[in-house]
Amino acid sequence: MKRKFCDFMKKQEEQKHFLSLMARIGDYIFIDISKLDIANGYNPTTLSDIDSFTMHFSTLEIINSIKRANLASDRYINGSLVIEDNQKHNPIKVIDKDFYNGFRIDLYLSEKMKNKKVSRSKKSTNLLLIAFQFIIISSVFLLSQKLFMTSEVTVITTEVAKKQAPIVLEKTATIVQEERQVVYDNMTIDELAEKLNKSMYGILEGKGMVFANYSIQYGTDPYLSLAIVLLETGCKWGCSYVATTCNNIGGQVGYPSCGGGNYRSFATLDEGIQSFFENLSNNYYKQGLTDVYSIHKKYAQAPNWSIVVNNYIEEIKAK
Q1: Which residues have C-beta within 8 Å of that of residue 274, sequence separation ≥ 6?
Q2: What is the pTM of this model?
Q3: Beta-carbon count within 10 A of 273 CB
Q4: Quick count: other Cβ atoms within 10 Å of Cβ 187?
């Protein structure tokens, strides 16, 4: 029994963690943090060190740094930023500087844990205490994702955890709720992507996660954004020529031209989607045009444009 436990603990010590971009569950790419311009050569490999690093930046700042370093393709850039380990356990959501509103929970808990030492009266008792500690820390990781062992062996009892919990909860509202991370309309990013996918047809089929990520990144309403695209591309019934041939999903004008006309051509569909969200954000939302009626006045001349877009919005919500 003792030997099995020691083998188990040795296996845990060999575990390493990596900052990763996940396109979907099981499909991810490790990121070499030392190559990021925001890291200045720093290369953390433990969960606690990676969390301490990501707490200094927003998720968008980290992803933009990954883009500048050219470490991942758009397929992963448009996915989720997570922490994965070399034993292929379930990925852990990254804690960025916005997660705790600037509160350094790692430093707080580290200081608290320094005051707790293990009594070394019996060797067998120590093994049980270490095992108990490991179980407790693993459980708390699922909630706060931020407890780690100091240089001295420490024990977190249930009572200690209860005393620390109110302070953490004050800073985070509720850790259990944050574990779910609602992004829009009481949905997580995965739930939002799944909902959008139900209304995406033709070349847009399966692009729900791309739309969800860009809508959150650029601060646009996901339902309104998709409704505009459905109207402009006609993809509910059959995608338009500029959409299928030139990857133009929003009726965007510009150069290079699509077939010699006014509409712009894009090299890839993802490039066209991102350009649409950039345009909607910069030329409408940031100008105070955030609802279908104010956008209508600038976006289109058709008198029934806002009515059709609103109808699409209701259809998207209902699915």
Answers
A1: 214
A2: 0.47
A3: 24
A4: 18
